């Protein structure tokens, strides 16, 4: 699995501060460092609409279709995903959960199913069936590639839901990596998310400024 930041609003925290200060007509208070305290104030007061002026776009490679089926349920994002209608999937790779990888009997069943699906797909293609119909036999474990764009308000919502300990492990792993990146790119916006690297989840702390 690979997560890459491919675009982000330039001078992102300054853009947020500039937009937010419009609400108070307080641009005269802007300094080189003022964005940090101002944005933390916005976040603490849940003045989240201002965060919608900032966007980030990620490319995610090697996540399963199980992951993408969950991810695309987020309504305020833009998605572009590898198409199984047009892309030849005869050499597809799969994501294997640790719970299956660590159980030899389960891994045997899993591997057999994957290879049976591969042979069925190849057989259908050989019979002249179009990829858009042959794909019906592909498992949810098949790796996919997806690009997603969202504003920072939505990213905060996604991280609250998907970095939680109760979130499914694959989407949590991927969202934690995106959170790590955005905490570096926009530390004031995401300062209240604390990542537990040992247990692999993040908590959103309520910060009062």
From TrEMBL:
Domain of life: Bacteria
Segments crossing the lipid bilayer: none
Biochemical pathway: Pyrimidine metabolism; dTTP biosynthesis
Keywords: FAD, Flavoprotein, Methyltransferase, NADP, Nucleotide biosynthesis, Transferase
Binding site for dUMP: 70-73, 81-85, 135, 162
Subunit structure of this chain's protein: Homotetramer.
Protein name: Flavin-dependent thymidylate synthase
Taxon lineage: Bacteria, Candidatus Glassiibacteriota
């Amino acid at each position: 699995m690979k997560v890459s930041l491919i675009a982000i609003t330039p001078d992102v925290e300054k853009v947020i501060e500039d937009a937010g200060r419009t609400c108070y007509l307080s641009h005269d208070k802007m300094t080189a460092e003022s964005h940090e305290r101002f944005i933390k104030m916005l976040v603490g007061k849940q003045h989240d609409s201002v965060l919608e002026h900032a966007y980030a776009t990620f490319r995610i490679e090697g996540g399963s279709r199980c992951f993408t089926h969950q991810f695309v349920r987020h309504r305020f994002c833009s998605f572009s995903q590898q198409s199984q209608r047009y892309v030849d999937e005869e050499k597809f790779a799969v994501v294997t959960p640790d719970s299956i990888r660590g159980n030899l009997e389960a891994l045997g069943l899993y591997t057999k199913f994957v290879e049976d699906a591969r042979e069925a797909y190849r057989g259908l293609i050989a019979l002249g069936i179009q990829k858009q119909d042959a794909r019906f036999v592909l498992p949810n474990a098949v790796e996919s590639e997806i690009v997603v764009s969202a504003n920072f308000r939505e990213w905060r919502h996604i991280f609250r839901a998907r970095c939680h300990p109760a979130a499914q492990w694959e989407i949590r792993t991927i969202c934690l990596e995106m959170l790590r990146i955005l905490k570096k790119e926009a530390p004031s916006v995401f300062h209240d998310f604390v990542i537990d690297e040992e247990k692999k989840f993040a908590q959103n702390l309520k910060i009062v400024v």
